[in-house]
Amino acid sequence: MSYENILVATENNITTITINRPTKLNALNKATIAELHQAFKEAEADTATRVVVLTGSGEKAFVAGADISEFANFSVEEGAQLAQQGQELLFDFVENLKTPVIAAVNGFALGGGLELAMSCHFRVASENAKMGLPEVSLGVIPGYGGTQRLPQLVGKGKAMEMIMTAGMLNADEAKQYGLVNYVVAQAELLEFCNSIAQKIIKNSPVAISKAIKAINANFKDGVNGYETEIKAFGYCFGTEDFKEGTTAFLEKRKAEFSGK
Question: Which of 71, 78, 150 is nearest to 115 (CA)?
Fold first, then answer.
């Protein structure tokens, strides 16, 4: 499928999705959110895709925020609908994707951009990355899950400070607070993410998808994460990947997982 605002390429079981609006610092608008949803949906359905890497084009920005011009004149009802639809279509969708998603954060990840990065399963930042949720400086709050995911990653106190001050963290600070896992030179960002992806690809896709579900369950209201883990653990025993993994271990050979 051809897209107007993103680029998609698959190689060596890794699908790289690049937000490609460099003149707008890759800002998220409705069209881009819709295209991202479709790209992630197709990647998850593609058995050749074992890991997704999400990044932004150019050297300045991962995603510099939402496209403010689209909602500056919205009503209360329209604003709530914007947040709800965006969360369902993209941010929650990415978080709950069965296929692992790595955010390669190059440059600015602000507002909706940081919210998108936080919805990915983990993050790697370039040395020039800057991250923040500046929404209160516009008279609004983060609406794509930022008030929920940021405290999960950096703690309640730091999240309160970041959101209230509309301040930014540099890459090293983001790593210090657990917002990103690694900081690397920008020229090495995608290569580094791909090296992690290759480690993931060696393991069972079924087990990884169940692990994602179990980990996420701990952060959902009304869901018992331990019960989710127990059921997911049991489910794995009925898969071809479990049979292959245990057999390969006992035979002292490398497992060849089918994802079934």
Answer: 150
Looking at the annotation, which residues are catalytic? 115, 135
First to last CA, the chain: 26
Q: What is the pLDDT of residues 216-242, one digit of tens each?
A: 999 988 889 999 999 999 999 999 999
Strands of 61-63's sheet in order across: 61-63, 108-110, 130-132, 168-170
Do residues 191 and 11 lie in contact, with contact meaning Cβ atoms separated by under 8 Å? no
Measured distance CA(227)–CA(223) in Å, rounded:
8
The answer to whether 58 and 22 have CB atoms below 8 angstroms apart is yes
Q: Which residues contact 23 (CB under 8 A, 6 or more apart)?
A: none
Q: What is the pLDDT of residues 161-208, one digit of tens each?
A: 999 999 999 999 999 999 999 999 999 999 999 999 999 999 999 999
β strands within 26-116, DSSP E: 51-56, 61-63, 101-105, 108-110
Long-range contacts of 94-98 (CB under 8 A, 24+ apart): 94/40, 94/54, 94/119, 94/120, 95/119, 95/120, 95/121, 95/145, 95/216, 96/212, 96/213, 96/216, 97/40, 97/44, 97/52, 97/212, 98/44, 98/205, 98/208, 98/209, 98/212, 98/213
What's the one-letter identity of residue 26?
A: N
- From CA 64, how far away is CA 67, in angstroms rounded? 9
- Rounded to whole angstroms, the Cα distance separating 113 from 77 reads 23
- Token look-up 């292959």 returns 244
d(CA 89, CA 93): 6
